[in-house]
Amino acid sequence: MLGWEFPPHISGGLGTACHGIVKGLGRIPDTKVIFVVPKTFGDEKVKNTKFAGADKYLERHAKILDREVKIEVQGDYAPSPQPFDKVKDHLIYIEAASSLHPYIQAEQIERILINRDIDPSQVYFDEKGRMMTDIDGKPKEITIAISDLQDAENVNINDTNEIKPAKFEFTGRYTSNLYTETDMYARVATELSKQYDFDVIHAHDWLTYEAGVAIKEQTGKPLVVHVHATEFDRSGGNYVNDRVFQIEKHGMKEADAVITVSNLTRDTVVKKYDIDPDKVQTVYNAVDFKPIRRIPNKKGPKIITFLGRITRQKGPEYFLRAAYKVLQELDDVRFVMAGNGDMYHAMIRETARLGIADRFHFTDFLDRDGVRRLFAMTDVFVMPSVSEPFGIVPLEAVRSGIPVIISRQSGVSEVLDNAIKVDYWDDNAMANAIYSLIKYPTLAKHLSRSGREEIKQIKWDFTATDIRNIYEELIEMRNAAEDEGVGENFDNTNILIKKQGK
Question: Distance between CA 95 and CA 176 in Å, rounded?
């Protein structure tokens, strides 16, 4: 199993989902997982799961970088293979920036704007989610260049504007050298896979797809790619990063089975990526969040919470607009926006412009303990996502006894009935839903109690069983192919995998 993050070191829902899946698989007899991450920290522990860090392998086997390097010489000379030691001083190590806005923190944006002599207080996001500022009274779009990201992260550059050669190190984060890390992860994971005996390759999200494809080509073992989000979701439907899109499409095309976290995502995979629908199956995420003890009959204002990355995809501006409308009717209410992202400071400035900053609170990123403390005092949870493949946080809120409002443009709306569902763009409906849950406590209690009962049927054990069934079918078909003399290079493009009863 190939993943980019794992609890307790996570940046979002991907790590939470990976944890739930391997925990569920660990409870199934005769099932063991070898989980490969870019960087291990030593505190990743799950029953029947071995964690392998690409960073540790790189430290033990530095020779993977000491490969022969072919230098193409223009003219009449042929390519000349040379030992790495002889040419390394003449090589320049370049980090390719990802420009993935969902993973850029607000502080980076601030530094980039200041470096370009743009006043951050004059930056805003238009209706298409573009970062804008006004120059000479006219709106102008702000784009982020690779050089901006490198400068913001203090990349060491010498006098000739060449990035100094450096020893490669995995961070396991979403930094400006993300492409470099995913490429190296693919190479190291392929080498590392030679040390283990396994039956199936399972790659989570685009960051590990290249590794999954490479291991499949090397071993002939069946490949499952798990789509937790697509580039269309991360971009909010605007400015799709073509490089990421092509990596995603290649991984899905080469996979023997594609798992999507919702039918909403399945539809995107089939239509936008042109993937054979017969090999795409929806397996829903679940929840494994310990119930919290709510503060009973707490005094003070009602707390309305948004929790997630503050980016175009998550719809923070719609939450803010709904908050403004609610605060025109109710005084004893406070709104909390928990998280960070490229729109963080823009949202702070917008609350000031609307005159609601004294009743709106920004927490920045919260760890799990911080989330639990926030949930303990939250009265209503809102997820206004523009495009949410699934959305585990609403399930965590429901399990904590909090009534939730979710956008219809989310995968979790397919499995959660006891929630108020609105279109993300309809801030009037969102404001009305918040108002109703505050003014009519009977409605809030009904959603809280019914949701807690419903959530008992949304378990990672069920998710893991569905995934294990996919493994079994792929292994059976691979064995059948070998018996028929097809060979080890198993390539399934037309397996019909359908969940029984659905």
Answer: 7
